[in-house]
Amino acid sequence: MKDISYYSDILGISLSDKQLEQFNTYMNMVIEKNKVVNLTAITDPEEFHLKHFADSLSLISAVNQASPIANEEVSVIDVGTGAGFPAIPLKIAFPNIHLTLLDSKNKRISFLNDVISELSLENVTTIHGRAEEGARTPELRDNFDFAVSRAVAKMNSLSEYCLPYVKPEGYFIAYKSDNISEELEEAKNAVFLLGAYPAEVVHFKLADSDIERSFVVIKKKTNTPNKYPRESGSIKKSPL
Fold first, then answer.
1. 195 backbone φψ class: left, alpha, beta (φ>0; ψ -120 to 50)
2. Rounded to 5 degrees, what angle do the CA atoms 132, 105, 85 make?
3. Which of 138, 141, 110, 142 is nearest to 126 (CA)?
4. Which are the contacts of 110, defined by CB distance < 8 A and separation ≥ 6?
5. Rounded Cα–Cα distance for residues 57 and 9 (Å)
6. C-alpha–C-alpha distance, residues 189 and 204, integer Å
7. Cα(86)–Cα(177) distance, integer angstroms
8. Model pLDDT for residues 178-203, shown as the tens digit of each residue
9. Could you tell me if 130 and 104 are in contact, meaning their C-beta atoms sit under 8 angstroms apart?
């Protein structure tokens, strides 16, 4: 079976036996919890390693063009983290990360607390709350080196949820499918208003597969104006 050790070699990421064990424990916990809480539609182990683990760690191809996450103690917030993707795989692979996991569903946060305890992960904070509410709190706003998200919202809305968390000169990186040109065009105004530089895109194929993906990389220029993010209803009804 092609597992995370196979894909990490392709990605150029070195994992210890302890880290490989952590990945397998995490996968088993997600699959078991998924029987009672909806966390993922992917439960086949081989598919899980590719579409959750390898996909999450592929962020290194985008991040290394910005700031080398593997070699620095950087702060990362995963907005709408769900079952912990991409943040938990990144934390396992790069323990130096100071990680914050944000999700609006308390059942997911409770599960992630169990994962953090079981895997003995350090410097990880979980927050139960809505993205637009968390971004208005002083301790989180304009505070992170990286915000990441695999959420399904369009880029104009997703940028308003996530960019307020990023400090100036930091990055918001969104996981997307390959064809995103229309989304990016729609998001230009939002990115500008939120205090960031124009988005750049890193296209790639998921390790040893034909699955095409994109990372949208947005660098923060200045602190986000205080009027953003707006209430969720306004974001959805009238995207920037």
1. left
2. 85
3. 110
4. none
5. 11
6. 26
7. 15
8. 778 888 999 999 999 999 999 999 88
9. yes
